[in-house]
Amino acid sequence: MPSALRTAARGPAWYLLAYAGAHALSASARIDALAVYTLAFAAVAAITIHAALDTGCMLQGRRGLPALLLALVAVVAVAQVLAPADALSIAVHGALLLGFACSVGAVLGREVVDPAHLWPLVVVAASADLFSVLAPAGVTRAILDGTAPVSLSAVVLHLPITTDAPPAPLLGVGDLLFTGFLGGAAARLDLPPRRSVVGLAAGFATCLGGLLAVEVPLPALPFLGVGFALAHGARIRPRARELALALGVAGLLGVLGATALGGR
């Protein structure tokens, strides 16, 4: 257990270092905000991938899942009470959020016993995340709009980008949970770690490119899931019936989202 705790603590420790580095870069007049944001996003992506794959290999049992979930809820609740907070509080909150979310996701991911289930899970999770972000009734949309009971600062990792603005949001708790989930599934199914890294890195890079291109918040989860699944290719080939069911669920969510948007 001590080794598992050390493994789970590496991601948060690296995040705190990234926060300090971003703070130093944001104070430099030689680097503009866009460059700092790109570097910050890349650093958080790399830390999240490492934490997800690391904890996926170490956290093998469900026994500690209730405690992890309770700790994650406590971190979000404390951030909700303290918001707006100072830089140190934001950094510590982000580190805890990263550690607990990746750990919870990794434990859940280790419950996947059949590689053929991954594509259907990716399709359903991606469509649910898109609905949450884009549909007026979506939870993430409400948080972004400030109409949800939970504030954005409580469920998102932040890093400082400029000295005259609060830390900018980078990744949501859902992205962290799902990356941890994929890390746990990869460990359980003995998928090649290098392919997992390439797939997740491609997903983060595509999300960042899209974000810079359209300049609006984008959900990272769909990019991560598709990148991960494509990277493993035939190893996780889905069965037609299960994939059709997943696509049906995705289509239903799409119809609900379109109806909600049309009704505004």
- Could you state the order of secondary-structure elements as H and E? HHHHHHHEEHHHH
Major sheet attributes: 2 strands, antiparallel
Give the overall shape, derived from the CA principal axes: globular
Based on CA atoms alone, the radius of gyration comes out at 18 Å
The residue ranges in which pLDDT falls below 50 over 5 or more consecutive positions are none
Number of DSSP strand runs: 2
Distance between the termini: 51 Å
Question: Count of helical segments?
Answer: 11
> Which percent bin holds the helix content?
over 70%
Average pLDDT metric: 89
Q: Strand arrangement, largest sheet? A: 1-2
Count the domains.
Answer: 1
How large is the share of residues in beta strands?
A: under 5%
SS content category: mainly alpha
What this model shows, in words?
73% of the residues lie in helices and 3% in strands. The protein is mostly helical. It has one domain. The N and C termini lie far apart (51 Å). The protein is globular, with a radius of gyration of 18 Å.
Using brief descriptors, characterize the structure shown.
mainly alpha; 73% helix; 2 strands; globular; 264 residues; two-stranded antiparallel ribbon
